Every structure is written in structure tokens, then in C-alpha cells.
Prior knowledge:
With 145 residues, this protein is α/β, with parallel strands linked by helices. It contains 5 helices and 5 strands, in the order βαβαβαβααβ. It has a single domain (4-43, 54-144), classed as 3-Layer(aba) Sandwich (Rossmann fold).
Amino acid sequence: MYTHILIPTDGSERSRRAITAGMHLAAGLRAKVTVLTATPPIPLIALEGLVAPVHNEELEQNDRDYAKKCLDVASEAAVAAGIRCEAIHAKHDQPWAAIIETAERKGCDLIVMASHGRAGAAALVLGSETIKVLTHSKIPVLVCR
């Protein structure tokens, strides 16, 4: 059935539940797993008197640390379930697009992800990465709540 599952994570409790569900599914199917966290690029800072903008190294390091923390949780769950797992940190302005692009590039045949369950104005204002993945993905998506 499914042989390669992509599990995106943002480090939230709901994402952790999706990781658990995805790992159980992968174990039952003997599928391999790719876990992904996608963060926006850190904008360059323009300092007065400098010709070229500079990177904020502290923000870059914080971003790498947070991504590692998210991916470590998923990787540990994979090890506990005895599943082969690749962890990827993608930099992308649109996390939903990074999810779809990674799934396509890696040959995933299922995406297992969380929904944060926002409704009403919060959903309209904040948007939903899950809805965008569902709308644009040609790959099946299993949504965990």
C-alpha cells in the first residue's frame, strides 16, 4: 500500500500526535519515513553604513536549534518504532509548499500531518498549512487531530 510516508512537524503537541500516528502506520506497513520541519528564511538585516545586508547569526542559530529539536522528537519516535527515518529541515517562505515539494522530491506516497483545528476568524486570519497541503497536493494526505 504505502511505502514512504512524509510526516511534517512544527514541534506542537498536535504534530507530536501526528508523528506517533504516522510512525505506528509506517511500522504496520513496513514503510520508511521522512520527517520534515519547514521554517521561513531569516531576513537579512541592513545596518546603517554597510553596503550589503548581513545575516543575524543568533536568529539563524535559534532557527537551526528549534528545527533540530522538532526533528529529534520525530527521529526518536522512529527509532523506538524500528523505522528507517530521514530528517529534513527546509527553508521556505511557505511551509505548505515545502511539504508538497519534499514529498514529491523524496517519492513519498502519503503525507501524515496534524491539523491545529482553528476555526472561524482564526482560521481565516492565520490560514492553515494543512488546508493548503490538502488543496494543492496530488499525494494522499492523512490528517490527525
